[in-house]
Specification:
By secondary structure, this protein is mainly alpha-helical. The protein contains eleven helices and no strands. The protein has two domains: 1-71, no CATH class; 82-245, no CATH class.
Length: 246
């Protein structure tokens, strides 16, 4: 019982946060239903059931984040960051970045939508592995940035310059997808585990400021899928040109 009480400590506050988060969506839906949509009763019941499931899922997920993901991420960062061979954080960051994006719900939704909208022209698995590799590299770079005290500007400024150059040389279909992928990759899995881990590392390394050096990882993660998918779009464009020439 004591374990359960510790696990659900602060659960009431989480429920209130979820209610506040969902309330605007519910209000907008109710207004549209009354004046515009006028959906049948059967469909309304399904939507209400879906909202209840969403509410319960969000509440338990956020409680799990507070009780488990964030503390374990910070502890991992502090423990490994204090080691003499803390360079190992760079390959660990690569593996974690890949694994977290494989589990990221927003990324799965995005690639499913892309495959459906393109009629299968853009392969789901190719998209997924492209985003995973891009984020894996970004997390590894974020670890290196904290370990060696590299300024965030050295990654962000050149990265976005390259991204804008690629937009002019990539397939137009991929440009919008790329910038959406940046947002999808910075979902709850990435923020809760990897961000807390990077902050934990910054706390353990002498001369590092958790506020200055611990944060900024999300900016790198948001940039990585943009670059990765724009490169994929560039490859698709070259293939299309080769097919047309043949």
């Amino acid at each position: 019982m004591r374990i359960l009480s510790n696990l659900f400590e602060g659960f009431g506050e989480v429920i209130i946060d979820v209610i506040i988060a969902l309330m605007p969506i519910i209000i907008v839906f109710v207004v549209f239903q009354i004046f515009i949509l006028k959906l049948p009763k059967k469909q309304i019941v399904r939507i209400i059931k879906g909202m209840i499931i969403t509410f319960v899922g969000l509440a338990f997920f956020l409680q799990g984040v507070n009780a488990g993901f964030m503390p374990v991420g910070e502890l991992m960062g502090m423990k490994i960051g204090s080691l003499d061979y803390n360079w190992i954080l760079i390959p660990i960051g690569f593996v974690l970045g890949f694994a977290v994006i494989m589990a990221e719900p927003a990324v799965h939704v995005l690639i499913d939508q892309v495959e459906q909208a393109s009629g299968g022209h853009v392969n789901k698995m190719v998209m997924q592995y492209t985003v995973c590799i891009g984020v894996a590299v970004a997390v590894a770079l974020a670890m290196a940035r904290v370990l060696y005290g590299i300024s965030l500007w050295y990654f962000i400024a050149p990265g976005y310059i390259i991204a804008f150059i690629l937009t002019m040389n990539s397939s137009p279909d991929f440009v919008a997808i790329a910038f959406d992928a940046g947002g999808a990759a910075t979902g709850p899995m990435t923020v809760t585990l990897i961000l807390s881990m990077v902050v934990g590392i910054a706390k353990q390394i002498e001369g590092r400021n958790p506020l200055l050096d611990g944060f900024g990882m999300i900016a790198l993660v948001a940039l990585a899928p943009i670059l990765a998918i724009l490169i994929l779009g560039f490859v698709y464009k070259r293939k299309e040109k080769s097919s047309d020439a043949g």
